[in-house]
Amino acid sequence: MRIDIITVLPELLESPFNHSMLQRAKDRGLLEINLVNLRQYGLGKHKQIDDYQYGGGAGLVMMCEPIVNCIEQLKSERSYDEIIYMTPDGERLNQKTVNSLSIQKNLLVLCGHYKGIDERIRELLITKEISIGDYVLSGGELAAAVLVDAVGRLLPGVLNDETSALYDSFQDNLLSPPVYTRPEDFRGSVVPEILLSGHEKKIQEWRFEKAVERTQQRRPDLL
Ligand code: ADE
After folding, report:
1. How far apart are the CA of 207 and the centre of ligand 1, in A?
2. Phi-psi group of 107: left, alpha or beta (phi > 0 → left; psi -120 to 50 → alpha; rest → beta)
3. Do 141 and 195 belong together in one domain?
4. What is the C-alpha separation between 201 and 218, in angstroms, rounded?
């Protein structure tokens, strides 16, 4: 998979993709991440990318021309399965959307800033708008990092134990069951016996039960 990210702050996105799973995905040739500096497409001597909003009001709006030129240039080089705009008024990101994006080939992600982007860009070019939650970040970069991380780890060959994504919270709309590691007894608090039994079927049943129980308690809306 290739993910192109259009941003005015490429530096902010350099580190999140250089560790752990995403680094592994890149090393294995499963994921290519390409940061595109929108400033290159800015207008005039000052490489302007934003301007005052029509109708007045505080806050600058990202202009059509730099973003449209940038996206058109990228589209002339390859076709994209989705052109995604990160925005708090987009569709709330969930595991279902992450799963469906993880089977795509080319994604283009646009990070907004200030008051957002000119509405006409959304009408003309954006195919999907994603929010990572009901709060406002200072820009779309951290939201894009969340999206890319969630998608990247699902690419076949990234996780070492291929089955482990199956037990993630939210797969099957269930939260994950509790997990334990050594020691068996930590300050008198002991690991549930069933997990030490070696009885694989019973362990699976126990995990499923606990996942349902936890979901009922914490996120009944998922059930
Ligand atoms: N940009 C600013 N806030 C955001 C959010 N909550 N989700 C996605 N993009 C954003």
Report:
1. 34
2. beta
3. no
4. 26
* Same domain for 196 and 88: no
- In a domain, residue 51? The reply is yes
State the DSSP code for 52: E
Measuring from atom 4 of ligand 1, which residue has the nearest CA? 88
Q: pTM for the complete prediction?
A: 0.94
Q: Which atom of ligand 1 is nearest to the CA of 136?
A: 3
Which ligand 1 atom is at minimum distance from the Cα of 112?
1
Q: One digit per residue, pLDDT tens: the chain, 223 residues? A: 999 999 999 999 999 999 989 999 999 999 999 999 999 999 999 999 999 999 999 999 999 999 999 999 999 999 999 999 999 999 999 999 999 999 999 999 999 988 899 999 999 999 999 999 999 999 999 999 999 999 999 999 898 775 677 778 888 899 999 999 999 999 999 999 999 999 999 999 999 999 999 999 999 999 9
Cβ 117 under 6 angstroms from ligand 1: no
* Structural domain that includes position 184: 169-222
Smallest CA-to-CA distance from 98 within 140, 160, 144, 147 is with 147
Among 101, 120, 152, give the residue marking a domain's end. 152
How many domains, in total, are found in the chain?
Answer: 2
